[in-house]
């Protein structure tokens, strides 16, 4: 049985995605996903307390309930801080109007 080879985004695609982000939340979420390579299902479980601002890292519960430390870029850190400054306090890192994401 042939294995599925994942497709990766080229830099031009990422630039177009960044331009299409309409909110601070969308931009921060995109930067976090792109810089860490995490799945949406993993990111939606991250709480603010899981972030380590000093070394730009986060503790993520990955596939198989394994905890991993992942690193994000300085640009991502800036986007996250701008987003969090614009939000009401919440435990979850990414929040929607209806429920945490």
UniProtKB/TrEMBL annotation:
GO terms for biological process, alphabetical: DNA integration; DNA recombination
Gene3D superfamilies tied to this protein: Intergrase catalytic core
All residue ranges annotated as the Tyr recombinase domain in the record: 4-101
Keywords of the record: DNA recombination
Gene Ontology molecular functions: DNA binding
InterPro entries named in the record: DNA_brk_join_enz, Integrase-like_cat_sf, Integrase_catalytic
Recorded superkingdom: Bacteria
Protein name per its UniProtKB record: Tyr recombinase domain-containing protein
Organism lineage: Bacteria, Bacillati, Bacillota, Bacilli, Bacillales
């Amino acid at each position: 049985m042939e294995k599925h080879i994942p497709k990766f985004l080229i830099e031009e695609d990422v630039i177009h995605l960044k331009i299409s982000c309409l909110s601070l939340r969308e931009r921060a979420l995109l930067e976090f996903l792109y810089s860490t390579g995490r799945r949406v299902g993993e990111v939606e479980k991250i709480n603010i307390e899981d972030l380590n601002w000093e070394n730009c890292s986060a503790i993520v519960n990955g596939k198989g309930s394994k905890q991993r430390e992942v690193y994000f870029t300085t640009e991502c850190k800036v986007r996250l801080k701008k987003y969090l400054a614009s939000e009401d306090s919440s435990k979850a890192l990414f929040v929607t109007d209806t429920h945490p994401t």
